Structure of Dihydrofolate reductase:
Amino acid sequence: MGISMIWAMAQNGVIGRDNKLPWRIPRDMAFFKEQTTGKTVLMGRKTWESFGGKSLPNRRNVVLTRDQNYQAEGAEVIHLLEEGLRLAAEEELMVIGGAEIYSLFWPHADRLIVTRIEEDFEGDTTFPELDWNGWQVVSETPGVKDERNPYDYRFIVYERKK
């Protein structure tokens, strides 16, 4: 049980451009899939739509939106933070974006799984300015840079300090 948040972030804080990732790192996509498969993923409406309105396979997909009439085929739709917190009381909840959703769940998260890309990118969405003081690194693994994964990057797991 609990809340994990997972995202990839450029050195300059960028997490998206035009509702897409501004980079292509297949190993990061594989890492995301490995971390979230078999779990409940919670996302905002824009993140849901960035997947083409299709559910991520082998995961329980939950969309959080203020729009009371919003429907998402293949996903459950919720409207309140409290509904997400209730889910997290029953199972591990993986918060997968976007920026507003990360801000909302930050005070409740237990674990952060971050792909830090060692490069600046142009983008229109950045990770929110939040207080990192309450977090400690529990693992850090360098990503493999090659012709298909052209950037230096690291997978870092943080846990909330007790």
